[in-house]
Amino acid sequence: MSKNIRFFLIFILGFVIYYFFDLFYFKNIQHFIKELFRSKALAHVLAYTITLIPIIITLKILFPQKKIFNLFSLDQNVLKGFTLAFIGTFPILIGYILHFKIAHTLSFESLFINTISSAFFEEIIFRAFLIGILFRFTKLGFLSSILFGSLLFAQVHLYQSQNTIELIEIFAITFLGSVFFTWVYFEQDFNIWAAIFLHFFMNLYWEVFNVSENVSGNFYGNLYKLLSIILITGIVIYDKKKKKKTFQITGKTLFIKTREVQS
């Protein structure tokens, strides 16, 4: 068996085990911990941490010499990721202040779960593992690497509505959002903190202000998101050109990589 086939078999098997472990046991683990510690937020974090075990084992089998923090890209510059996300999402903050009222039904635990916990673990699972590992350590290019992960990322957000039109809108927005987060993650020298904080701030402003009942949003809700995406894209491109760094995503890395990436 060739190394490539072995790699993909172990990778796929590891993710499938994680997926069904999460699907069938996440809520039970979360409920058990919540009853034990009387904290919904703590239960959410610990349930995510426990269901990550199959992914961590998979990475240790594939890369026995590498550290998990490196494979999840958590060893990158936290401040750099935070700064890009904070500045880049400023149009959202200003726009929402101008057009929406502050929500009056916020609870700390719900806010924590929908911002910090969800942003961190979703980026680790989808961006760093499911998409990032494939792009960094195989010959798969950008589009080849993101397809399945972004489709799955979009699918897990469909619970937010039962309306057909809204389902299509939610799927499209979250799929494109996954592609954008991945591009930022890759072009920031595989700094997962950039994607985590982008996810965090976007979720935070959406939760703090009465924007919409689900991610499909409305005109102003999506307008300021689009302005932030344009600003972030400009900042990333300007920074890369100023420092004369090679772009990770080019014609040579779009489908099948014809050159190695710096991971």
From TrEMBL:
Residues spanning the membrane: 7-26, 41-62, 82-99, 111-133, 140-159, 165-185, 192-209, 221-238
Keyword Ion transport assigned: no
InterPro entries: Rce1/LyrA-like_dom
Domain CAAX prenyl protease 2/Lysostaphin resistance protein A-like residues, every copy: 111-204
GO-annotated biological processes: CAAX-box protein maturation
Superkingdom per UniProt: Bacteria
Keywords: Membrane, Transmembrane, Transmembrane helix
A GO term for molecular function: endopeptidase activity
Entry protein name: CAAX prenyl protease 2/Lysostaphin resistance protein A-like domain-containing protein
Organism: Chryseobacterium ureilyticum
